[in-house]
Amino acid sequence: MKHMKELSEDLDQHDLKFLAKTPYVYHCHHFNLFHDQTVEDAVGFERGFDIKSRAAQDISRHFLLGLVRATGAATPTERLQVASTVFPWMGQGRLEVLAGAAGGTARGDHLHYSFAWREKYGSRHKRQFSIDAFAAGFAAAATEVAFSLEAGALAASEESCFVCREPACQFVLTPTTGSQTHERIDRDVVLGQISEPCEGQGESEIVKIAQGLKGFLLDIEGDARGLVQGFGIFITRHLSSYYDQTAYDTIHSIEKLHPQSVSAVEGLFGESGHVCVFYTFGNIILSPEWEAMVGEPKGEVEEIVGGCTAIARALGFGHWSIAELEPEKRLVLQSTSNYEAPFYLERYGKSDKPRCYFMANAARAFMQLAHTIDWKAQPELNDSLYQKLFRNELQWRVEETRCRCRGDEICEVVVTKR
Amino acid sequence: MQETKSESQTRRVGSAGATAKNHKDLAVTPLKRDVGCGNSLNWRCDLCCRSVVSSAETLFVEAGYRSLSALPALKVFRHPGGHEIAWVVRTGRVQIRISSVVAVSEREKAASEMYRKFIDILSRSFAETPEPLMVEPSVRPGAK
Asked: What average pLDDT does this structure show over A400-411?
């Protein structure tokens, strides 16, 4: 069977990544936990788990269909083998599907979400509810694909979870009807929704750093547990459509049922941009890998913002570029491709407002990090520093002034000092 | 003649928390916590001599480590137990990464052990030098 690395494609011009034509990005456990928690906080545990597991199942199904085609896996055993091979490559842990055409069970060990939650919060908190909605949906999709079942033929639930201090995670897959499924959003669809890349400031240095990081990221290996540890974080190679569908389904649900709460929920999904930049980008900049490739950070604003832009490209977030940067005053970040707008346009059509919550707030976090962190002191990027910088002392406001979701040519975010 | 206290201390090689130094400017700083938001997963020391890299690399591999070095400027060695040593050749920064398999309460101990192994390999890479590797006691691991 081909190694997953061979099936991974980097569209360098657009800084997007695909595995068997399905878009994927790198995100850390802090972001993953925050994003999933936001869904749960917005609509409650049960509805939240439903939104997440169905999105996971829908998107994983298309993903696995592409993968079995690319690898030539024909029998149910071969197809389940593909699923159980790609899952740890994604940094999601180990998943064993013990199901047939009529459903069955699946077992998860060291699943990313439950393991990372215990690692991050377990010493201080106990959690009552299961958390591995992605793995639940993935297990259902793997079974559907293995046995050539119709989309949405199975429903998945998590019956026991490591996060609740059980020894492992157990899922039950049962036949069902009436599930809503969606069309595939793949490389061709995405290419149809993005425009020619634009160049910004500091382009040659950004390209150089991004290229170096891309190669390095593709080579990062997981461990025997199926987890990928790097830069002091747990990394996933995750399906970007999962983030998009869960976020937008949640926001649309709130828009319909509780319109007075929309801006709060949008704010939370936006805050995920802060979380990602602080923990992932920050730790990358402070890492030995960065020191070897780029050098020790000096802490200059242009250096940090440029570095963050390069990191965004390397992680597969799209072709972000610096249109304007005035330290202490303003950043204008533009994107001709990101992982939010193409999905939104394809799935929901044109919007009457901007929809790139993650990108907008990531840009804000670039400026906050560039202006407030003493990089030479190599600070610990922990929760109390995050709270200080992003809850108590956030100096910047952000507006998405142009958005492809609204019909504009590019997505553009403007960050200014409060 | 009785050894002075400082002479007997300087003969101890590879003690955890000690600074290793020889006449040829090899020095390794004490182990301390490094950046990285895992609980006690990342530890750091700094090496002040670049000349040992190629010989140390051979010794790491002979000791059962896997070389994962994807960048020429960064050497990464994975211990069979899952821990890693990442070494920035140009600056001498060394990061010891403890596998998250290890319970939080045991990570500092695991880091000290890896630090000792690292110093041991460095010492052996200098096996040809006539002068012994000298060690000065310093703060214990875990101090920031």
From this structure: 96
- Mean pLDDT on A272-300: 96
List, as ranges, residues 292-331 from A with C-beta within 8 Å of B: 292-293, 296
Is any Cβ of chain A less than 8 angstroms from the Cβ of B8?
A: no
Using a CB–CB cutoff of 8 Å, tell me whether A109 touches chain B: no
Residue-level pLDDT at A180: 78
In angstroms, the separation between the Cα of residue A381 and the nearest Cα of chain B is 6
Q: Is 60 exceeded by the pLDDT of residue A231? A: yes
Q: Among A22, A145, A175, which Cα is nearest to A74's?
A: A145
State whether B95 and A288 contact (CB < 8 Å): yes
pLDDT score of A181: 86
- The answer for residues whose C-beta is within 8 angstroms of residue B62's C-beta and 6 or more apart is none
d(CA A352, CA A334): 19
Task: For the beta carbon of residue B116, count every other beta carbon within 10 angstroms.
Answer: 18
Q: Which DSSP helix (H) or strand (E) runs through A387? A: helix A383-387
> Mean pLDDT, to the nearest integer, of B111-131?
79
- Nearest chain B residue (CA) to A115: B100
Q: Are A120 and A113 in contact, with CB atoms under 8 Å apart?
A: no
Q: What is the model's pTM?
A: 0.91
pLDDT at B38: 65
Element housing A64 (H / E):
helix A45-71
Closest CA to A219 of A209, A228, A210, A227: A228
Contact B71 A216 (CB under 8 A): yes
A224 contacts B71? CB cut-off 8 A: no
